[in-house]
Specification:
- The chain is α+β, with helices and mostly antiparallel strands.
- It has four domains: about 80 residues, Integrase, DNA-binding domain (Double Stranded RNA Binding Domain), CATH 3.30.160.390; about 120 residues, Orthogonal Bundle (DNA polymerase, domain 1), CATH 1.10.150; about 200 residues, Intergrase catalytic core (hpI Integrase, Chain A), CATH 1.10.443; about 35 residues.
- The protein is about 50% helix and about 10% strand.
- The chain is built from 18 helices and ten strands.
- The strands form three sheets. The protein has a five-stranded mixed sheet, with helices on one face. A three-stranded antiparallel sheet has the order 8-9-10. A two-stranded antiparallel sheet has the order 6-7.
- β6 and β7 form a beta hairpin.
- α4 crosses α7, α9 packs antiparallel against α10 and α10 packs antiparallel against α12.
- The radius of gyration is 34 Å and the shape is elongated.
- It starts with a strand and ends with a helix.
Amino acid sequence: MDTFNFTKKTIAELPPAPAGKQIEYADSGVVGLRVRVGATGIKAFCIARYRDKKFIRATLGRFPDMSVDMARAKALEMLSAVAKDGKNPNESKREDQNRLVTLSDALAEYLKSRAQRIKQTTISQYEGILTNFSGDWLKTPLAAIDRERVEARHKAITEGGVWFGDKPQRAGVATGSKAQADLWARVLRAVYRYSHDHYRDTDGNRLLPDPPTMVLSTKRKWHGTTRKTSRIRNNELSRWLSAVDAVRQHSTSIRDDFAVSVCDALDVALFTGLRRAEVFGLEWERVKISGRYFWIDKTKNGDPLELPITDTLHGIFERRKAMRNDNNPYVFPAAQGGIITDPRRVIDQISQATAQNVAESPIAFTCHDARRTFGSVAELVGVGSYILKRLMNHKTMRSADVTQGYLHFSADELQEPAKKIERAILEHAGLVEKATGLDHQLLAVMGTMTEEDKRRMLFDILNLQSNEKKA
């Protein structure tokens, strides 16, 4: 390595390095100061020295934007710091940047870390809630978002305020509520907790203060909005299914294929307990009618779900197959052939159709009501908690329930429990005769028996009949 006294003239006259290489020169005035020359002729000052058997290099700036005198002063400052604490200036710079990480950058890093685990709709929700209610904080360092600011913003969102700049407004892009306030705080908490653990110095110490959302727990500011419990009551199933069929028949007569598609999708939701996105996004390649099963590969908890096709579902899938146009990949397509995104028009028609009698009120309905109805009926007929968890694809692996990890049910094994739930729904709706008396008791007992026990009981009955005939 050539060593000479750095001056403006000597550095300016340095030739470009060969293609694909860099040449480095040392200053005779300040030991450790160097200049690197690239193949394009770009020159940059840096420091380079060994400390505790480690080679430390840090860029200072480009020549001629940084003069020789400025480079020497900066080099002496950095070399002195290295000699004092042995810390790499690059690491110190990185730590300083991490201490000042903004909410926007922290959110991006958080979502990047979970890209394989959460859906795009969830990503959009997180981005939307933080932008709507704290858009003025996106360029603010996380460390500057303190407890007082979080508490004040949570209160403002609770009261229906929308933030533009420093003042809450009563109209705008989004209107707050108790539920929105808690959702905003939960998202902020998740991002901050990740950053609090992720950003550390070279010694492993955290660079950010404790999450400011802790104030909401300390002062009991969380609203704790309760889970919705609305569903179609058992005594309303007849009205609901009749209304769905009436709207379907009317829509068929006027060639409203979109409405027919929504009606069929709502029936599938009721008889399977599937989530809205799982039903509307179901594709034909995942439906095996002849095999009497179908599966959902992208579920909320990330686990694929294989379900049986019961008699009611078989009829719906056959009808959908007959109505399929142009090899559309979706079982329940929207008007333009894609995924249904807004079924509200058809749901409103069905709700109104449930009130044909002036003495009856319309049955209010959301798509998730079908899932709650399915779960409630399943529990009442006693299909078993583990079976129900699988049918509804509820994940319990994070709990202490070790048994759950050993149970795996295929569509064939879920066929009988699914039929049991299906029959209960149809009985409540008056679409099949309800088993009573001895028949009801026999069905109840058989519902708890294994296949082997059922075969043994049938064999004993046949033997008994045969012996009676011989006698």
